Amino acid sequence: MTNYERTEAWLKACGKEPDTENLSVQIGCHLEEFCEFLGALRSDSEGYGKLLERTRTDLEWFAGKLKRREQFVYIPVHLRTDALDALCVTEVTGNGVAYMAEMDKPGADAAVLDSNDAKLVDGKPVILEGGKIGKPPRWKAPDLRGFV
């Protein structure tokens, strides 16, 4: 099963069907993870370091709005091909970054997806107030140290 298929199955198990609200929340999650990546970057230039921090801060703010359903975004029909291209290329370039940084991305991908699956109890998610998917007792985030 591909990473996409595993993610699709997990979202369906969590009752997340495609609609404008769920799309906005998922985009917020995607941006939040990109912000986490930005937070791991450092620059030899103080000015660029500050730019990275401002960019991360602004994107985190917007991602939070999307995840809390305070703001909604969509992909217009005429831009869907461009959006799909960007998502695919983001995955390819992310794999390239992992390769250049000598990280075991396939192993880390499997660990992250396994951890996500562990959030399901008897195939069902733990749903918190507000609809957020929670973590069951004894759930542990994946330890990715062995993949770097």
Describe the structure in brief.
This protein is mainly α. Helices cover about 60% and strands about 5% of the residues.
- Spatial separation of the terminal alpha carbons: 24 Å
Structural class, please? mainly alpha
How are the strands ordered across the major sheet?
1-2
Major sheet: 2 strands, antiparallel
Could you say how many structural domains there are in total? 1
Residues in helices, as a percent range: 55-70%
What is the tally of beta strands? 2
Sequence of secondary-structure elements: HHHHHEE
Proportion of β residues?
A: under 5%
Helices, by number, come to 5
- Give the low-confidence spans: none
| Global outline | globular
**Structural Rg:** 17 Å
Average pLDDT, all residues: 95
Description:
The chain has 148 residues and is mainly alpha-helical. The protein has one domain. It contains five helices and two strands; from the N terminus they run αααααββ. A hairpin with a 2-residue loop joins β1 (120-121) and β2. It is globular. The mean pLDDT is 95.
Key terms:
single chain; 148 residues; mainly alpha; two-stranded antiparallel ribbon; 3% strand
Write the layout of secondary structure elements.
Blueprint: H1 3-13, H2 20-39, H3 46-67, H4 80-100, H5 105-117, E1 120-121, E2 124-125
